[in-house]
Specification:
The protein is α/β, with parallel strands linked by helices and about 300 residues long. About 40% of the residues lie in helices and about 20% in strands. It contains 11 helices and 11 strands. Strands 8-7-9-6-5-10 form a 6-stranded mixed sheet, with helices on both faces. Helix 4 crosses helix 5.
């Protein structure tokens, strides 16, 4: 059971390095992360974009790849199309966003004829190193990147995507907290009502291979002390691995708070496509992007 990014890297290094295609590759942070991933022996770089810009950025970084294929491309849209095509042809296994808008990248991924769809809802799983009250673990926040206002069925799919991440990381039954403002259903408050319905789906067997509880407040989800003080005893209270947020705003803000208030190591991955898709924020550091690459390799 993987508890931190050091162990994620150990799992990734136990496998053969995977070709990672970087779309619009003239992004300094993404190139630095891919240089580090190659050095760590977990990735084989494939760079798509303007060759002149890519080489210029590499020169400014002052580093070179040991071996990297550059696929020249004149613009953002073409770069995404070529990167996705490389994945579909088996020449690359992981798609990494470079200096391209997330919407443009995801449009290519979701193309019904030439994309990476497999019939599932795509969602972003944001993992960070948590150590609340000495309880060291990788904690997941979802979905702060793709689904704006998911309905009940979409929340179920987002939940299952996150559970798949943890199952691949060695968790037999990940613990999912469906977040709300309090731990009881508030009549007319949709997030609490749907959180309870997801819990009931798990109890009935409609959702499998995980513990699901909701609604739960954030403190009850991650703090054993809070659970004890409030007299809440359950499989998930104080022990959550996955925090399912009610919509994109709360998930996005919660995820970014782990970076800007606490500077915690992070990595994230889009699940639900045929291959791992990495859409790091433009403000993510090279180390965060490297963690995301390692996570994708470990899960593949």
């Amino acid at each position: 059971m993987v508890k931190n990014f050091r162990e994620v890297f150990e799992k990734a290094k136990s496998k053969e390095p995977l070709p990672v295609v970087l779309a619009e590759a003239h992004d300094p942070a993404a190139l630095t992360a891919l240089l580090d991933a190659e050095e760590e022996g977990i990735a084989v770089p494939v760079l798509v974009g303007d060759a002149g810009k890519i080489n210029s950025v590499l020169e400014s970084i002052g580093r070179k790849f040991k071996k990297a294929e550059i696929v020249d491309s004149p613009d953002e849209k073409t770069s995404v199309e070529k990167a996705v095509e490389l994945i579909r042809n088996g020449e690359a296994k992981i798609l990494l966003k470079g200096k391209v808008q997330t919407g443009t990248l995801m449009k290519g991924v979701l193309d019904r004829e030439k994309g990476l769809r497999k019939g599932s809802l795509l969602s972003d799983a944001f993992l960070f190193e948590s150590n609340v009250e000495g309880n060291e673990k990788l904690l997941c926040i979802t979905d702060g990147g793709i689904n704006i206002a998911p309905d009940l069925n979409a929340k179920k799919q987002i939940l299952l995507n996150a559970v798949e991440v943890y199952r691949r990381l060695g968790y037999e039954k990940p613990k999912v907290s469906c977040l709300s403002i309090v731990e009881n259903v508030v009549e007319g408050h949709l997030p609490s009502e749907e959180a309870f319905k997801l819990q009931e789906m798990a109890k009935s067997g409609e959702i499998e291979n995980c513990f699901v509880e909701g609604p739960l407040s954030l403190d009850l989800s991650i703090s054993r002390n809070a659970a004890k003080k409030k007299g809440v005893v359950s499989d998930v209270a104080g022990e959550a691995d996955i925090l399912l947020c009610p919509e994109i705003v709360s998930a996005n803000l919660l995820a970014k708070s782990t970076t800007y208030f606490a500077n915690l190591p992070l990595g994230h991955i889009v699940m639900g496509a045929t291959h791992p898709v990495l859409i790091p924020s433009r403000s993510d550091t090279p180390s965060a992007k490297l963690n995301s690459i390692a996570l994708a390799v470990a899960l593949f």
